[in-house]
Amino acid sequence: MRPPIFVRALTDEERARLDAGVRSSEAFVVRRCQIVLGSARGERAPQIAVAVGCDPKTVRDVVHGFNTHGLDILTRGSTRPHRLPPAVWTPQAGTALPALLHRSPRDFGHPSGVWTLALVAEVSCAQGLSTRLVSDEAVRKLLRRLGIRWKRAKRWITSPDPAYRPKSSGATA
After folding, report:
1. Cα→Cα distances 170→85, 94, 115, Å
2. Do 111 and 104 contact (CB within 8 A), yes or no?
3. pLDDT tens across 122-138, in order?
4. Does 61 map to a domain?
5. Buried b / exposed e across 141-160, counting CB within 10 Å, b at 16+?
6. How many Å apart are CA 57 and CA 94, to the nearest integer?
7. Is 145 a member of any domain?
8. DSSP sequence for 66-92
């Protein structure tokens, strides 16, 4: 079992600011001050978590943050992720995807003549336009960024037979 973690020794200025922070109008600041002061009194993370109403991991994170950054933990930071998700689309996907949609799915070995978003995702991965198989929602978002409006596929009676039009025109006459 790891030893419990506590905050470093507080200076008089830090203690005064933490005492004032307990009376702050911002719940974020109040909670952080209560955690640091509880740890300075020698309380362990689970005890502080029960008193403050948060998770023991949150208490440990605040204690670590105070030990490394000091009173800067009292200011709320950005909620943006620290890392961006890896790029899924290759740079040429923006120009190649619209061209791909103007071709039939049969050109890529699929039995359907109608594009669906899932089918576009599958073919774009096979053609190297995406680094991994993406969801149909990712395809829809890329198409929207490119200014292409995606509409639900409509089923038409078609055939890959080259003589389909002459045969079908005589059947409906």
Report:
1. 56, 42, 28
2. no
3. 999 999 999 999 998 99
4. yes
5. ebbeeeeeeeeeeeeeeeee
6. 43
7. yes
8. HHHHGGGGGS----S-SSPPPP-B-TT
Residue 36 lies in a domain: yes
Last residue of a domain, one of 42, 74, 106: 74
58-108, pLDDT tens digit by residue? Answer: 999 999 999 999 999 999 988 887 787 777 888 898 899 999 998 989 999
Whether residues 68 and 98 fall in one domain: no
Domain count, the chain: 2
**Residue 19 domain boundaries:** 12-74
Residue 116 is which amino acid? T
pTM for the model stands at: 0.52
| The three-state (H, E, C) secondary structure of 108-151, written as one string | HCCCCCCCCHHHHHHHHHHCCCECCCCCHHHHHHHHHHCCCCCC
Among 106, 109, 118, 107, residue whose Cα is nearest residue 152: 118
Same domain for 67 and 99?
A: no
Q: Residue 125 has which token pair?
A: 């991965």
- Cα–Cα distance measured from residue 167 to residue 30, given in angstroms and rounded to the nearest whole number: 79
